[in-house]
């Protein structure tokens, strides 16, 4: 993906960038047993959530492979899940399938509610100009209820695109007016290329692109964010614990950053990563980084090649394994 140096990229880094997140799936769980029910299915500690808090988690098969990743928000009277759009129905059906005697109701509310992200160092000021939400002291995944022109609004502290900001969740009929108000308050629309560039620079994997149904969370490096080591049992835990405790966290492959020379082409997703003549992995996402001035990529490599500084090749272009998130040095190189 070539970076177009859009004003949206600059807004995410120095202002307030507006990202339409309505394509995400939203699943609503109500009922007194909702936290305990999800506690046995998701990788993070859902039972510990209180009203206005949330976390990042994954839903796994018994073999420890991902069905989906998601953001979990406890609202006090319900739980709201944000999931990748192409697995929304899969997740809804999976959650519904395992309800037996629990007081839990699962509903897909994607078509009912829109989600607008405002990210960047000025995002809080923009949100405060438009809504009555007190956002300054919200922790990550924290949420607060507010209103916009009489419509109920949920404001969530978020770092989903790799830069901090807020997600605003509102009934769909009010979404266009909210978007216009945010732009009037200083937010700048962000195109998909700019949002993807910031995400890749942050080393933030996306389900359906950098993570799939064949991925174990440890391979994608999301264990620190998504997995609780202290909670009780959940589906897939045995595999995760076996790798963490007996295998010392070593997996056959791992998602890494890849840094290329300034004149190298941006690699395509699926491009082979080579060590000598041996293919050791595949690229999953790539862009030309505006901050670094050269192409960067995310990709899986075999575990013997994950150390930063390891020299590899993508096509005819030389590349170096890089730590995530990508960071510039004083000379502008990674």
Instruction: Work out the helicity level.
Output: 10-25%
Question: β content, as a range?
Answer: 25-35%
The poorly predicted ranges are 1-5, 330-334
Quaternary organization: single chain
Overall form? globular
One letter per element, helices H and strands E, the order comes to HEEHEEEHEEHEEEHEHHHHEEEEEE
N- to C-terminal distance:
19 Å
Q: What's the mean pLDDT score?
A: 94
Instruction: Characterize the largest beta sheet: strand count, sense, and whether it forms a barrel.
Output: 6 strands, mixed
Radius of gyration: 20 Å
Structural class: alpha+beta
Number of helices: 9
Beta strands, count: 17
Strand order in the sheet with the most strands: 8-9-10-7-1-11
Layout of secondary structure:
Elements: H1 7-14, E1 17-20, E2 25-30, H2 34-39, E3 53-60, E4 66-74, E5 79-83, H3 88-97, E6 105-108, E7 113-119, H4 123-130, E8 143-148, E9 151-158, E10 165-171, H5 175-184, E11 188-189, H6 192-201, H7 217-220, H8 223-226, H9 237-246, E12 253-260, E13 272-275, E14 278-289, E15 294-302, E16 311-314, E17 317-322
Parallel strand pairs: 1-11
Antiparallel strand pairs: 1-7, 2-5, 2-6, 3-4, 4-5, 7-10, 8-9, 9-10, 12-15, 12-17, 13-14, 13-16, 14-15, 16-17
Helix pairs in contact: 1-6
